[in-house]
Amino acid sequence: xxxxxxxxxxxxxSAKVIMVHDTPVAVFNVRxxxxxxxxxCPHRGASLGDGHITSKTVQCKFHLWEFDIKKECAxxxxxxxxxxxxxxxxxxxxxxxx
Length: 98
Known about the structure:
By secondary structure, the chain is mainly beta. The protein has one domain (2-96): Rieske Iron-sulfur Protein (3-layer Sandwich). 0% of the residues lie in helices and 47% in strands. The chain contains no helices and eleven strands. The strands form three sheets. A four-stranded antiparallel beta sheet has the order 2-3-4-9, with no helix packed on it. Strand 3 (23-30) and strand 4 form a beta hairpin. It is globular and about 40 Å long. The mean pLDDT is 95.
């Protein structure tokens, strides 16, 4: 498990990008739910952590692809899946399991 940050350091509708080995990982806070995805958009590799975050989607800022937070896939094509990583919260600290 890798410590990401304290939950208070990840405000609502925000993301934090960290590098784990050679993998960029975006950790998001959406409506109090913390989740983590491979930070590379499957379309062209742009940063998802820099995208527009709503209560239901994350939108890549470069080509505007949208990804469903719950389904972890592209809104327009559910066969395009995102790689996600387990998160654990202990005493307010966010940990990533990769």
